[in-house]
């Protein structure tokens, strides 16, 4: 697919420097200064201010309106999922460096005393922590597949789900768009190859129109997931060659390295085979999803329309808040 760059979009421009500072403040610093994000002391882990949240909530509602007529089943999972299900998913084959596990204290009273002594001395206190049966959700759709599999074969028309979850990926960064914990809104389609590819095409059009209506410069480009290691590079090449993944990119940090704000993914029969999800005729189900990075879209809006929400273009505000 050719890039769908919007010729009517304005060029990406750096934000003006604040006051009379000799060096312009970074975009991340400006977000902190205005209270859109709140420092926690950990790169990529931030609190969200009220204005920031109002945009996230409006975007979430906008996505709901776009998909309302499709009749998707709405499910909201917590930000943790079953470790056995996570292991079965195959995520560790491709992204071991991004995974996060939940550990908890499992020691006795003596171990507790050691823990407190280590905390008091500023030393590592995690020796008696053990991995629980919960891992941090890497993508909103991952807890869904075992749930769908447990229901048995799909109906002839397949299934469609509406998901949202906080997700975790261990990639600390000072780039505001690369958060370690973030919210992902997804629609997931299960069915025949024809059904899921048609779903993806519909959302490619809807997602592109939505972002253009929000006044954002964009391009839809072939992409690949950040698979780990040498084998991962081969998987990434295959993913691109087969056109399995497209991303809607918006310049936020720079024009040279735009930020993926939406992704459109065709998994083929990977999850259907992994979870033994069958179509009504007995064939292995195929799946596809569209994912919206709610924080990333919010950051793109702040970058291009300014940090003062009241000064945003009227048509953009109308799209979000009516």
UniProtKB/TrEMBL annotation:
Protein name (record): Amino acid--[acyl-carrier-protein] ligase
Disordered: annotated segments: 1-21
Signal sequence segment: none
Biased composition (Polar residues): 1-11
Species for this entry: Methylobacterium cerastii
Top-level taxon in the UniProt lineage: Bacteria
Keywords: Ligase
GO molecular function, one term: ligase activity
């Amino acid at each position: 697919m050719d890039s769908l760059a919007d010729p009517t979009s304005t060029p990406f421009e750096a934000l003006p420097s604040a006051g009379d500072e000799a060096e312009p403040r970074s975009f991340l610093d400006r977000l902190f200064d205005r209270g859109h994000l709140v420092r926690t002391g950990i790169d990529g882990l931030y609190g969200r201010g009220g204005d920031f949240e109002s945009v996230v909530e409006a975007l979430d509602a906008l996505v709901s309106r776009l998909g309302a007529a499709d009749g998707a089943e709405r499910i909201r999972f917590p930000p943790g999922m079953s470790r056995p299900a996570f292991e079965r998913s195959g995520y560790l084959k491709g992204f071991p460096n991004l995974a996060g596990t939940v550990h908890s204290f499992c020691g006795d009273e003596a171990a507790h005393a050691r823990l407190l002594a280590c905390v008091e001395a500023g030393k590592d206190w995690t020796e008696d922590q053990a991995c629980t049966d919960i891992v941090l959700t890497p993508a909103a759709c991952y807890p869904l597949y075992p749930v769908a599999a447990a229901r048995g074969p799909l109906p002839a028309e397949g299934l469609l789900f509406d998901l949202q979850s906080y997700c975790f990926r261990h990639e600390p960064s000072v780039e505001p768009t690369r958060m370690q914990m973030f919210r992902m809104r997804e629609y997931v389609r299960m069915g025949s190859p024809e059904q899921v590819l048609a779903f993806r095409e519909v959302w490619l059009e809807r997602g592109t129109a939505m972002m253009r209506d929000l006044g954002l410069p964009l391009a839809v480009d072939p992409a690949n997931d950040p698979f780990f290691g040498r084998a991962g590079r081969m998987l990434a090449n295959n993913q691109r060659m087969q056109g399995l993944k497209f991303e809607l990119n918006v310049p936020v940090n720079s024009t040279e390295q735009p930020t993926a704000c939406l992704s459109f993914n065709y998994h083929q029969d990977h999850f259907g085979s992994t979870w033994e999800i069958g179509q009504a005729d007995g064939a292995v189900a195929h799946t596809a999803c569209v994912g919206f990075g709610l924080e990333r879209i919010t950051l793109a809006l702040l970058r291009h329309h300014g940090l003062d929400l009241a000064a945003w273009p009227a048509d953009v505000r109308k799209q979000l808040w009516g």
